[in-house]
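Render this sequence as a predicted structure.
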Amino acid sequence: MLAIKSSSALLFHNKISTLYTYFIVAWLVVLFLLFNSRTVTAEPVTVVTEYLPPYQVKNADNSLGGYATEVIQALFDITKDQANIQVLPWVRAYDIALHQENILIYSMTRSTSRESLFHWIGALDIEQYYFWGLKRNFSQTAPSLDALRDISIASANGYASDQFLTEHKFTNIYRVVKEQQIIQMLKRGRVKLVLSDGFVFETLVKELGYELDDFIQVFPVFSLGSEMSIAASKASSTRFIAKYQNAFAQLESSGALFAIKQKWGINNKDKKNAAR
């Protein structure tokens, strides 16, 4: 009888030990999977951009700020990835995003010619483009696009506005690197026209210390009006694209994007009405 009890106790003890072992192994597997999933999803991501107030601003301490940069930071707070932001001349930034994989680029006009070249993560703002001139050179607005075709114009190389001028066979174009430079050329009388988004133009005029009243909107270009966006390179993985599109959707649905827009005075409703 004693032998039977001892055998039963030993069998019970073995079962407990086996269950304990299974529990430990299962727990270790869970920990491994949790750690491994975090390791896989959290990754360094190259983000390319340029200085373009108020979207991308160089702060007094040389750090990068601005409305769009705050949106990017909020995006990465959601994805938990590490943003490696590179501020480059636009042509170089565009070329990197065009040819490399898993690259984010901002802020970029979502033009017709670019639509199929990138994956679009989310809209930052609504743009409305105008030809701008000095009031001393233009007493009234132009009757048509054709009337401006032969007039000297400054353009930031590689911009959507620059691509528009080429597509519409403007030939008297003086190309520079930055948007600020085209306004300086206009103000100094080196060219008669520039083509720029209204919000960006007005922001840069003030930043350069010029009087906005010295300039006139010569002709609107409604066909170029589009979204200023965050985009991903065409070669990006499906997982990468989905991650950032979902994160942007979360920014919109949570109200976080609206709050950042309010802070920077971004009013899409007024711009949509102006573009009609």
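Summary. Residues 272-276 have pLDDT under 50 and may be disordered. The chain is about 45% helix and 25% strand.
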